[in-house]
Amino acid sequence: MQGDPCHDAYRQPGGHIRNAAGVWSLADDLGHLNDYACISARSEHEVDVLRSFVPHAEVLPCATLLQSDHFDIKGIEPGEPVVEIPVVLCFLRLIEDLTPIIDAILHKKLFLPFPHYNGDQSFMRNLPFNREKSVVLDRLDPLPLHPVIRQMD
Known about the structure:
Layout: H1 5-8, E1 17-21, E2 38-41, H2 44-51, E3 58-59, H3 63-67, E4 82-85, H4 90-94, H5 98-103, E5 108-111, H6 120-126, E6 134-136, H7 142-150
Parallel strand pairs: 1-2, 2-3, 4-5, 5-6
């Protein structure tokens, strides 16, 4: 069975493990994941989506997020409420009035360019949102990126 062509290119036949899968809430074709011997998701919400296709899916956060050193995010105080926003290009097509929605968020906003291959950093920097309570990070290598993601609840 096939899934996303980008991910299928890396799939190997056999009973492998798919750890810390990220899934879209509206995913509707994940049956191919039943071929894995073990599959886990990063959060309860993601595993709930997975279980409608893969009943044996479990929650298991990505180990790299748990073992990375802390990364100080300039402009955000420890314990300060912050909303991480991973804006990608398709959001303009999928979300009407994206900028007013972002501006309406009361807490400080952290824009994290991830994944790197979509031109997310350039896209985020050019969105016309109110930057008064926002931090836009530069593209990060994996070692600092993991602890930034870990800090988001």
